[in-house]
Amino acid sequence: MVYWAYNLAGIMFHDITTLLLDTRAFRDTIDLFVERYKDKDISVVAGVEARGFIFGPPIALALGAKFVPMRKPKKLPGEVISEEYSLEYGTDKMEMHVGAVQAGERALVIDDLIATGGTLCAAMRLLERVGAHVVECACVIELPELKGRERLGEKPLFVLVN
Amino acid sequence: MFAAENGLKGDPRLQGISEAIRVVPHFPKPGIMFQDITTLLLDHKAFKDTVDIFVDRYRNMGISVVAGVEARGFMFGPSIALAIGAKFVPLRKPRKLPGEVISEAYVLEYGTDCLEMHVGAVQPGERALIIDDLVATGGTLSAAIRLLERVGAEVAECACVIGLPEVKKLKHRMHNSKPFLTCLALLGRACGREGVCGWRVCLQGKFCVMCIWSTFPFIFKIHHCSTAQALPCTLLFLFSPTTLLFCILYWKWTLGIEMLFSQMPTFQGQCRLNGKPLYILVEPRKIDNCC
């Protein structure tokens, strides 16, 4: 963990793309998440567009779970549900497919980075609206000064590096 | 080109993958039958089979870079990269990647778009695989190929889960680049023999070869003639009605009209994009798996 955490510390702009260029560090990142969640009976891994799409599917495949993309408006075809969330200036929307997640499923929300927590909160609300139970939110990087953890309230947050 | 024709004929996994794909009619606009892979991602077995098929194919090809096209290429690329021990490089829409990037524009049905890659992500000489969920005209994949080649990487193959019918017309296509070489390929089309550089040369041999050499000596290595022979050929080539016709056709082509180029002869029946092979798992679903 120290090895790739050191790598990560050298990343400018909290840009995870350099992590993806280091095969061992990327492998370790996924393994750490899988190790944490493999016995938690997770059936849904929800990844937030677009960098959540990079970490979510490998984790989902390793856990035997399905992967559900949470996308910006008008990207998902067919019937969707929407959740609005606030940005620094204005609002944005996140969408999920109707029928992708069933009531009672145990879900993990994944994104590369948590800043204010707005997108993660929106993702959680979408899952809870269809009756899923969000076990945890997981991110590679946290920007603690932006207090995203507080915005998530009582929902647990797991972060690899802050 | 298609997995079923390339060693996976009758593989039950392909049927499972095909059946997991959903068709959404009239998305994003009327008349388009959208091939939705999100239902594939909900089917753990089908999703795993998809990744496994790609991993089995590319494991021993010396690939060190998997480049995924935003955003659905991100859903397949990283798992493949992890399994084959390659790095994952995201190819993104403009202004999404921080830091220094290189850009490549490509033509859409209406207008143009742009694909970007980080400078320094890929080193010269690396072997790359490009992955996306679906290929139609090949415009996006062509831009991706050009990005990687511009930094000196070698694109081993382009891989997609679904290939639309238009892809079968991608025989000898060049997208928005090397226009004169494409014109020359048309010139050589009437013949049957492949040249040293891969472009077909005239059965008359000397005439076409001289035209090619004299016009672009820095590209081709065919030196069958002297300068004295080359000069009249150059003039004949540059001012001929054939050349004029080629220029008009190329002009129309860059406006997005694919006419004559879709009828070009193939390299042993294989589907290629900018000269790179294309590997596709399944054909598009028909209406019966509609939402």
From TrEMBL, chain A:
Pfam families the UniProt entry points to: Pribosyltran
UniProt superkingdom: Eukaryota
UniProt pathway: Purine metabolism; AMP biosynthesis via salvage pathway; AMP from adenine: step 1/1
Keyword Chloroplast: no
GO biological process per UniProt: adenine salvage; AMP salvage; purine ribonucleoside salvage
Reaction catalysis annotation: AMP + diphosphate = 5-phospho-alpha-D-ribose 1-diphosphate + adenine
GO CC terms in record: cytosol
Keywords, sorted A to Z: Cytoplasm, Glycosyltransferase, Purine salvage, Transferase
Domain Phosphoribosyltransferase, first and last residues per copy: 26-150
Record EC number: 2.4.2.7
Transmembrane segments: none
Molecular function in Gene Ontology: adenine phosphoribosyltransferase activity
Keyword Endoplasmic reticulum: no
Membership in a protein family: Belongs to the purine/pyrimidine phosphoribosyltransferase family.
This protein's name: adenine phosphoribosyltransferase
Native source organism of the sequence: Morella rubra (Chinese bayberry)
Lineage, broadest ranks: Eukaryota, Viridiplantae, Streptophyta, Embryophyta, Tracheophyta
Automatic annotation (TrEMBL), chain B:
Matches recorded under CDD domains: PRTases_typeI (cd06223)
Any single GO CC term annotated in Swiss-Prot or TrEMBL for this entry: cytosol
Domain of life: Eukaryota
Reaction equation(s) it catalyzes: AMP + diphosphate = 5-phospho-alpha-D-ribose 1-diphosphate + adenine
Pfam family, one: Pribosyltran
Enzyme kind, highest EC tier: transferase
EC numbers for this chain: 2.4.2.7
Manganese recorded as keyword: no
Molecular function terms, GO-annotated: adenine phosphoribosyltransferase activity
Residues annotated as domain Phosphoribosyltransferase: 43-180
Principal location: cytoplasm
GO biological process, one term: AMP salvage
TM helices/strands, residue ranges: 229-251
Subunit field text: Homodimer.
Protein family according to the UniProt entry: Belongs to the purine/pyrimidine phosphoribosyltransferase family.
Name of the protein in question: adenine phosphoribosyltransferase
Organism name: Morella rubra
